[in-house]
Design a protein that fits this description.
Length: 230
């Protein structure tokens, strides 16, 4: 039996009790290609075919090991909920920035958020209309890799926190740098200047809607989960 045939037989055995769905077929192809690539790497390191094959299959010894990091979710309801959350967050950001329109910079941010809400709302409506006939299809699923999703969610929060520190530091340096350097007291002359400063420091916080949307997408996986990929 050829090496390719042995790989195929081994992968087919792993999926003996799996449902014959598009997601499982795609996952089977991915495992097959990864297994073949691993065997090739081992052979390049000096192993013979049999040793390379036996070493490689140890990394995919069973379905629990393969599938534990994957979740199947209903595609249309899941992405509809994600777009709905994005629309809600963008609308909230737009509403709370309406008072900022008293300032030119605030008006610009508010207009951008309104445009964002219109775009996200349009995408939401378009997606619902496009998939209205497939929303109830139990075979229409998306496979989510939970560890990868969680890792990028955490990274995004750290990146956002770093961005806030940089932007706030830049604002503080531009507005109060000379006062701090020459040890002069920082003075805010009246409510107008206070409002200008407050808006300048509040605007970067609006970027929180991006990690919030990603966090929401991660949290609602369980709501539309149809079970492990097995």
């Amino acid at each position: 039996m050829t090496l390719e045939a042995r790989i195929t037989r081994h992968v087919n055995r792993l999926f003996d009790h799996a449902q014959d769905t598009l997601a499982n077929r795609e996952l089977k192809e991915e495992i097959h290609s990864n297994l073949a690539a691993r065997i090739e790497d081992y052979m390049e390191q000096g192993m013979d075919k049999e040793q390379a094959f036996q070493t490689a299959i140890q990394h995919v010894a069973g379905m629990d090991h393969i599938m534990s990091d994957h979740r199947r979710v209903q595609r249309v309801p899941y992405w509809t909920a994600v777009l709905q959350s994005a629309l809600i967050y963008s609308l909230i950001a737009w509403i709370i920035t309406i008072p900022m329109r008293v300032m030119v910079q605030g008006a610009t941010i508010n207009n951008l958020l309104m445009l964002m809400s219109v775009i996200v709302g349009g995408a939401y409506v378009f997606y619902m209309l496009k998939n209205k006939n497939t929303s109830a299809d139990p075979e229409d699923i998306t496979v989510i890799r939970i560890p990868v999703f969680l890792q990028w969610t955490r990274r995004l929060w750290w990146l956002w926190a770093g961005l806030i520190v940089v932007l706030w530091g830049t604002q503080a340096a531009l507005r109060f740098g000379s006062n701090i350097w020459y040890s002069r007291p920082i003075q805010v002359e009246g409510p107008y200047q206070f409002t200008v400063i407050a808006i300048a420091f509040a605007i970067p916080l609006l970027s929180i809607i991006i990690p919030l949307i990603v966090q929401r997408a991660y949290r609602i996986v369980g709501k539309y989960d149809v079970g492990d990929v097995i």
